[in-house]
Design brief:
The structure holds two protein chains of two kinds. Chain A has a single domain, classed as Thiamin diphosphate (ThDP)-binding fold, Pyr/PP domains (Rossmann fold), CATH 3.40.50. Chain A is about 35% helix and about 15% strand. Chain A is built from ten helices and seven strands. A seven-stranded mixed beta sheet of chain A has the order 2-1-3-4-6-5-7, with helices on both faces. Chain B is an alpha/beta fold. Chain B is built from 14 helices and 16 strands. Chain B starts with a strand and ends with a strand. At the A-B interface, strand 1, strand 2, helix 3 and helix 5 of A face helix 3, helix 4 and strand 9 of B. Strand 2 of chain A pairs parallel with strand 9 of chain B, so a sheet runs across the interface. Iron/sulfur cluster binds next to helix 9 of chain A.
Amino acid sequence: MYKTFAYTQGLTPKPTHYCPGCTHGTIHRMVGEVIEELGVRERTVGIAPVGCSVLAYEYFNCDMFEASHGRAPAIATGAKRSRPNLIVFTYQGDGDLASIGMGEIIHAANRGEKITVVFVNNAIYGMTGGQMAPTTMPNQRTTTCPAGRDVAEVGYPVRMAEQIADLRTPAFVARVSSHNPKEIIRAKAVLKKAFQYQIENTCFSFVEVLSTCPTNWGLSPLEASNWLEREMIPYYPLGIKKTPEAESGQQEHNSEGV
Amino acid sequence: MARVLMKGNEAIGEAAIRAGCLHFFGYPITPQSEVPEYLAKRLPELGGQYVQAESEVAASNMIYGSAGVGIRVLTTSSSPGISLMAEGISYIAACELPVVIVNIMRSGPGLGGILPAQSDYLQATKGMAHGDFHLIVLAPSSVQEAVDMVILAFELAEKYRNPTMVIGDGMIGQMMEPVEFPDQEIGPPLDPGDWALTGCKGREKRIVNSLYLDPEECNQQNIRLEKKWEKITKAEQRWEEYKCDKPYDLLICAFGMVSRICKTAIDSLSEEGYRIGLFRPMTVNPFPYDACAKLVKKSKRVLDVEMNMGQMIQDVRLAAEGSKPIEFFGKAGGVVPSPDEVIDEIRKVMKKAGIKKPKKKTSPKKKIGTAAKKKTSKKTAKKSAAKSSGSPKRSKIRRKR
Ligand SMILES: Cc1ncc(C[n+]2csc(CCOP(=O)(O)OP(=O)(O)O)c2C)c(N)n1
Ligand code: SF4
């Protein structure tokens, strides 16, 4: 007998509290594997957000901060500037990063902080019971837009990867998805690249990961996967949005992945 | 080291460096901007980091990140900015991280004004942010004391792993005075101990966290913080007594720069033969309640003088425990009371309380004293307020042991 699938060193063996079919767990696993494979676990400091992944500090098997809501990029700035040899990453939801923490993420990116941001976009506030997020899709029903998001009233969903890519400061920016095995394999490769840029001290790196919230979307896990593919991906195109090698300010809107 | 003439804000920046702090995160605001300006120039020269945050909210979280990885760190701001730092400060207190925050206070509420005030006493000592925690708060009355207290603030913050604040009214930041720094050019680095996030090589992972979902665990965390505060309260009270070594009829209570204006007023009235003492807390949190109570007991009346509408007076009243009426004189909005105004106020209070100068055999020296009845001109009063921190002979700096 031999093991074909084992725990990754990058995660603790603690069972997560995520709902069945939630892709937070999958994204944790990808980040954990990347940290292990790159051999940086012992010099990594992660920053957990406020949101469903608040307990990420229990799951990642490295030194961890728990942040205040939205401020993970500021905490990461303080940590990285103070100990530049650390590998510092934040793990944030869409309410955390694109609403209350919009200021912190834009400025950390614009300063070109040598940190890695894992941005989990599930188009809703999971933890607080399914309220509207800045990333909620047009006409998507949530507990605070029961008739569906009315874009005339509250504007369109924010495309964070494109916003960050639009900054002049060199960065690695990509959007990936976690809804099926093919995209998961791609997503992991992109996450690895993002961490590599930090290890080489090249630039700020930002990976938006489209994620499911079957519980608050009111769908089964399989339906949630399908909904993500059908509704979210056309609005949130996948792909590398910017590399530090490309001329600054030039965006590449391709959907090739890596 | 020789004494140098320095602006308060720059001296505060230099003091931090001497204490071994090479990391600063902050956002510009009058009247403290010379601190970040000074450090923006000095820190990169010394291999440190100066980062201009996008807001005070971000700055307070940057120092959380910096202290969390075991680095000595400073932020400075002024009143409206400190309000925005409330979030980070609460998390830092909960996670028991050592940071130093300087508030060069201006007047409020709202945008208020940019001139000196003591408007944030209650915020600093009682209600900084959500949750049960306490800041250690030091209140300097001169540029030299600001330097000494910034250095002390780092010591206390690290000894107790507790955020520590230095509150100076705008004058402390803006005026120039001669100061002396410790000889060491840069203090030794902070010991990251068994708590800082330095990477988990060769040890278990560490977590800097303030979330306790289990109510009993959260209760225990609160009890732990409160016990620490009891320890700080016992060991770290500091205050000054001025002209309290001989009998006095009136006790003035004041902190920060205002205490120096009060000393000028007291000196002038002493020459006339009045007996007045002064109590000045140097740690406004923990407030030296016992020391204050003792001094209040020996007086007939108490006058509390502040540059606000009466904030520290709440602590003086707590100390007095209703034993005596506590009178108040204060100016807010950036209006600095002159020694003459304080003298007028003291006379009013003494008249109301029926305090007369004790009859004494007139000595020739005394005569000169009483003859100098004419009001000190505004110019000379200001000069003497800036020059002297009172007669050092009759001033005692004390610490509770
Ligand atoms: C300052 C502050 N405001 C509000 C909250 C309440 N709150 C907790 S989680 C959350 C939303 C999180 O949503 P998201 O970032 O999308 O993460 P998800 O739960 O979907 O993973 C909110 C509003 C809080 N904890 N702190
Ligand atoms: S509420 Fe949504 S985001 Fe949160 S754990 Fe459940 S499925 Fe995941």
